[in-house]
Amino acid sequence: MTIVDLRSDTVTRPTSAMRAAMAAAEVGDDVYGEDPTVNRLQARAAEIFQREAALFVPTGCMGNLLAIMGWTQRSNEVICEQRAHVNLYELASMSAVAGVMPRTVPAPSGILTWELIEPLIRETIYYDSQTALVTLENTHNMHGGTVYPTAVAEDVCERAHAAGLRVHLDGARIFNAAVALGKSVADITRKFDSVMFCLSKGLGAPVGSLLVGSHDFIKQAHIRRKMLGGGMRQVGVLAAAGLIALEESPKHLVLDHENAQHLAQGLAAIKGIALDPARVVTNIVIFEVRTTGRTAPEICEQLAAKKVLCSATDQYSVRMVTHCDMDRAGIDVALAAMAQVLAEKAPAAAAR
Ligand SMILES: *Cc1c(COP(=O)(O)O)cnc(C)c1O
């Protein structure tokens, strides 16, 4: 029996077209700026996002950190949603490396509005750390792949700019958001000062993310990437896979979203699971299991024994993510396994 891996859209493996492109890639030393495939990927990313420049980075975390370093001074504050990736899952690098403080607020569905942001802006007093940057996340991972209405994101950008702040977008899954909105990534990111997006998530590339923005911003990020140890040599082998991901994968994301919707509806029909399928609009499904008599880690463990992998996002919530290596049949296997697990007797409550 094959494993149904719904832990993340990072588990995808490169397609045979990607493997072939990697084997055939023209390469050079990218620290000298001489890798033609990297240069092509960066130019194409800038073109797609209608920006002046782009920089290939090994990870989304590095892309976000470079943006934070680019837009802040040490001791500044960065406003972000409480469950933002930059706040929870990046080793506190904004503090540990960039020397800034996250200033967080919980937001319904993870969607920050100006009404939530404005009260967090620090006064101009010499002993107050000063707010420099707002970071939004679209889609919002830990709120179940939620999508910013473009008007809300643009309103945040405009008012932040009027207040003298920069706005960075953690767009790890911005292509999923664009597909859900039926708009281009350029259209929905136009007002941000910088955007990071991942090739290695739903787009299915093995490695890599891009940071896009102005010439000046990317020039600074390029220097800092080297400082962080991210100067890569014949990295065109990775960029070649990234180019295919960038050109070909966005049109398939709609299938992941349909599969997530199918998954959500199936889960919602299982007794004990609390989930509103209408809230699932991209490829991430997060649901509550409080009334099943089990914790989320227990359910994940029982599913794993049936070769269905997913993750607990807290004590009573579980996350499943659809992706290009997961078809409808796999989703049905997962649903059957979940129904079976919950039909079995719950483990002894004393164990908790
Ligand atoms: C995965 C992810 C990142 C970071 O990507 P890595 O390539 O794993 O470093 C950043 N933000 C969000 C929302 C993500 O889901």
User: How many separate structural domains?
Assistant: 2
Strand adjacency order, main sheet = 2-8-7-6-5-3-4
Fourth CATH level, the homologous superfamily of the largest domain: Type I PLP-dependent aspartate aminotransferase-like (Major domain)
The percent range for strand residues is: 15-25%
The low-confidence runs, each spanning 5 or more residues with pLDDT under 50, are: none
In summary, what is this structure?
The chain has 352 residues and is an alpha/beta fold.
Describe this entry's structure for a reader:
This protein has 352 residues and is an alpha/beta fold. Helix content is 40%, strand content 16%. The chain is built from 14 helices and twelve strands. It has helices at residues 16-24, 36-48, 60-71, 85-88, 93-96, 114-117, 150-162, 174-181, 185-189, 215-227, 236-248, 253-268, 296-305, 328-343; strands at 4-5, 53-57, 77-81, 101-105, 131-137, 166-170, 194-198, 209-213, 284-288, 308-309, 311-314, 317-321. The protein has a seven-stranded mixed beta sheet, with helices on both faces. It has a three-stranded antiparallel beta sheet with strand order 9-12-11, with helices on one face. The radius of gyration is 21 Å and the shape is globular. The two termini are 31 Å apart. 49% of the residues are buried. The site of pyridoxal-5'-phosphate has 12 residues, from helix 3.
